[in-house]
Amino acid sequence: MNSDKTNLLKETPTDHEILDLIKNRWSPRTFADTPISAADLNTLFEAGRWAPSSNNFQPWHIVWGVKGSETYDRIFNHLAEFNQNWAKNAPVLLLGIVDTKTPKGDDNYHAPHDLGQFMANVAIQAQSMGIALHQMAGVDYKAALKEFEFPETYHVATAIAIGHYGGDLEDVPEDLREAETGPRSRKKIEEFTYNGNYIKHADID
């Protein structure tokens, strides 16, 4: 593989065997030139559609735009500058939005969790299609909510860049290129699971 290309597979040192679709998924900042078709998007949204949600409220809402469209530019304009530096490489941009109220008007504290389940379904479906997602917290959520005319009780939780794996490292800011090629890491299971009471990580030998 050429050194100026991103890795399609990254080193993922798992401690236990897991599905390849999960193991090989990662979040690139550059993408292949292959377009994401309307059929691809509908397949991804269909996967998300069948995610579980509290009381089956399905509080998720997705705004999407294909590169070159007005909606794409409107989403892009509300990304943090840090993310704009590389998200411009993405063929598709999304906003993940939740309704923070139940149908009866009560607070729905589970809505962000449910959107997370929606996007997890999308991510695994995308991986099976050779499509990558990079989810971003860096978005002006208040301005984006107003831009797309959602009610004030809704919340823009995330932005998402979508494209096929691939692309040139030269399209990524130099200070981020190492993250595109280096191994992945995660906390150990012992650091976040408890067979009983909470224990500070510092107390674990």
TrEMBL record:
InterPro entries: Nitroreductase, Nitroreductase-like. The keyword Oxidoreductase applies. One of its GO terms (molecular function) is oxidoreductase activity. Keywords: Oxidoreductase. Signal peptide: none annotated. Residues 22-83 form the Nitroreductase domain. Belongs to the nitroreductase family. This is Nitroreductase. It comes from Nonlabens spongiae. The lineage of its organism: Bacteria, Pseudomonadati, Bacteroidota, Flavobacteriia, Flavobacteriales.
